[in-house]
């Protein structure tokens, strides 16, 4: 059972619906964002997602969290493009369903959840706004909590896009620390209702696993043996330790795109689903083929030039086992 996350890097439509904030993603804007470029990006992203099928998961990930989407309409276009891609390849459609919520983010970008109804049934959806007491005008993406049954097991997914490092990593850290605290508060509330609830926190956290927001505020540990049932284990901590990341900045790899699981999914006894493995989905076609940025994510634009790429982030995925093992 696969659970994935993908930052889609500015999946905007071509309509300037948010004033100056999305003007650049319009035909009149700096990027000359027209229908041709839009559909190239949508179809490229569909190729990436459809390629995430494995021998163990032939219908792809059961759950895909996504970020940097402008509205529900662009997500609907993406889902249709995934099924079109599968049909072209002679594969069965996945029929992904959508959970989307409009956030107060100034740029107008949101998070959303895609799910395969063969595996997951939605029971409840809530959105949680990050409030910064000393900065009441601060706006960012809401945290989207989707609760339901994954293969008839109780599971909640908290989809995130935490505040950026704008202004400096250290100077902005308090914002992401607050976001980590909010995710932990949401999880604690879920466990109050059902102590056996599995909880997965996923998203572009704009921090690495060892940063304070993840390791302290959320409390996600590196060693799965130290993860308490109502705590968190971060399998991607060991991945970044080996120099593998999801985005590259000034020649340095970061792993901001994380999927963090509650401790009760480590042994799986109470939930009925158990963590198996994780991966950064960095297939060759998603990488820049040559030059200074070789092997980094092949993004849509670079220095104002349209590259006809995918995203400036690689997707990530974890796998869960239904049969709990010793």
UniProtKB/TrEMBL annotation:
One of its GO terms (molecular function) is endonuclease activity. Pfam families: Exo_endo_phos_3. SUPFAM superfamilies: DNase I-like. Keywords: Endonuclease, Exonuclease, Hydrolase, Nuclease. It comes from the Bacteria. Residues 3-320 form the Endonuclease/exonuclease/phosphatase domain. PANTHER family: ENDONUCLEASE/EXONUCLEASE/PHOSPHATASE FAMILY PROTEIN (AFU_ORTHOLOGUE AFUA_3G09210), ENDONUCLEASE_EXONUCLEASE_PHOSPHATASE FAMILY PROTEIN (AFU_ORTHOLOGUE AFUA_3G09210). This is Endonuclease/exonuclease/phosphatase family protein. It comes from Muribaculum gordoncarteri. The lineage of its organism: Bacteria, Pseudomonadati, Bacteroidota, Bacteroidia, Bacteroidales.
